Amino acid sequence: MAELPELMVLSKQMNEELKSKEFKSVDVIQEKCLNMEVDSFKDQITGKTIKKVYNKGKWIFFELTDNYHLLLNLGMGADILYHNSDKNSAEEYQCRFNFTDSSCFTCKFWWFGHVDLVLNNELSDHKSTKDIAISPLDSDFTLDYFKKICTGRAMIKNIILNQKKVGGIGNVYIHDILFKAKLHPKKPANSLESFQIDNLFEVMVENIRYAFDKKGLAYEKDFYGKNGDLTKDYFLVAYKEGEKCPYCGRIIEKIKTGSTSSYICPECQKL
Ligand SMILES: [Zn+2]
């Protein structure tokens, strides 16, 4: 599932490719993706121009002319693909956005995605995005900010996965982040020493930056259909159940941590 690095790659490419393009039409196969009736959606988006594309956590934001935003969420995963011409677009998609220069992009959701069109003055009420927190590579995501959210009895893993505290990290990159920081995912946040929080912050930022530089996961596609560079080999403990810990040689375990599973080394990450 795409997380912050993949979403950053995608939104950066979309911004470079789509800025100043004008929507000519939209083909909608799966109407349930939309936050309004399909005719109304088409009426409102046609003629709007893209000013900027950026991501907020796992959502892609398109700032449009006439005070609109188009918001895109990939759900459990999706291929969002650019096509030079609408004549050679992917055959399978739930939505296709066509531009006046005859280029287009298609959205093929693996399970279920969202495409919402909202007025700028309604953005602060948009349920799914209004509370998304800043992300580790944002300039205001400082160590001070991180220290403020690492409080209370919640397990440290859940704090990092909480989109209201840290935008964009899900149950993929988290395993190696906690492993490198030598922290058990179930450790209560308020039990961490100050140096452990410093270390975790550093590891997390470094991990996400590296993944972004490598264009994300090998099983995710960018805007041009190209896969990221990070194959299974990249991970240290994630998805390595039954294999040896690269640091100490103990067998890596898969454990339940609340509603999610976690991969840990029981020696390096003591509770
Ligand atoms: Zn170990």
CATH topology of the largest domain: N-terminal domain of MutM-like DNA repair proteins
Q: In percent, how helical is the residue content?
A: 10-25%
How many structural domains does the protein architecture include? 2
Total count of helical runs of at least 4 residues: 6
Distance between the termini: 27 Å
Annotation keywords:
271 residues; N-terminal domain of MutM-like DNA repair proteins; Helicase, Ruva Protein, domain 3; 2 domains; 4-stranded antiparallel sheet; binds zinc ion
Describe the structure.
The chain has 6 helices and 10 strands, in the order αβαβββββββααααββ. The chain has 271 residues and is of the alpha+beta class. The strands form 3 sheets. It has a 4-stranded antiparallel beta sheet with strand order 1-6-7-5. It has a 4-stranded antiparallel beta sheet with strand order 2-3-4-8. A two-stranded antiparallel ribbon has the order 9-10. α1 (4-18) crosses α6 (194-213) and α5 (174-180) crosses α6. The longest helix is centred in the last third of the chain and has 20 residues, at 194-213. The chain binds zinc ion. Residues 245, 247-248, 250, 265, 267-268 line the site of zinc ion.
Q: Would you summarize the structure shown here?
A:
It contains six helices and ten strands, in the order H-E-H-E-E-E-E-E-E-E-H-H-H-H-E-E. With 271 residues, it is an alpha+beta fold. Strand 3 (59-64) and strand 4 (68-73) form a beta hairpin.
